[in-house]
Write a structure and sequence with these properties.
The chain has one domain. Helix content is 23%, strand content 33%. The strands form 2 sheets. Strands 2-1-4-3 form a 4-stranded antiparallel sheet, with no helix packed on it.
């Protein structure tokens, strides 16, 4: 589903930042756009920054359930800084409904990840997809291996190297050899 991203530009509050940029909304089913001005209120301007596909995967339904359980449900926009000095400081990289994917992008620290409230129609679409594709993973208790730990393999070392003592032998086995 194509999702348009709305970004608001407001005047910066410090002398180091001329503008403050914030993702404020999404437009489900939006047409393609590239930083189209939507609204102007004094110095504050809202742009339809870009339209990106919101792709959902059957393997990620657990992540979608997490975001739908959040109040309110959200989508995340990943914005990458551009090298342009003009009015377009970010490139919209991806829009996702998965909080896990958003966290992966946030961990790198190179992208700006913005959380945006999901419109009710989009939340219903994601809920319908999740309900039809989610399969609960059964809990499987981990069993111990049948590996025998009572057998001593002390002092085996590397068989290719001939030497009078074994450098891999523990001090305990050396002590046993001296006392017997």
């Amino acid at each position: 589903m194509p999702i348009g991203l709305i970004v608001r530009r407001t005047p910066g509050v410090t002398r180091w930042a001329k503008w403050a940029w914030r993702a404020v909304g999404v437009l489900p089913g939006a047409a393609p756009a590239d930083w189209v001005e939507l609204r102007r209120d004094g110095d504050a301007v809202e742009y339809h920054a870009a339209t990106r596909p919101l792709t959902v995967w059957a393997a990620e339904t657990e992540a979608y359930r997490v975001t739908l359980a959040d109040h309110p449900p959200s989508v995340w926009a990943v914005l990458r800084p551009t090298n342009h000095i003009d009015d377009i400081p970010f490139d919209v990289h991806v829009i996702t409904a998965s909080p896990f994917e958003a966290q992966d992008y946030a961990d790198s620290g190179e992208e700006l990840v913005e959380k945006i409230t999901m419109p009710a129609g989009l939340a219903a679409w994601v809920q319908e997809f999740t309900d039809s594709h989610h399969e609960e993973d059964p809990f499987v208790k981990r069993r111990r291996n049948k590996h025998r730990t009572d057998q001593v393999e002390d002092g085996r070392g590397d068989a290719r190297i001939k030497q009078t003592t074994d450098v891999y032998r523990t001090p305990m086995s050396a002590r046993k050899a001296r006392t017997s």
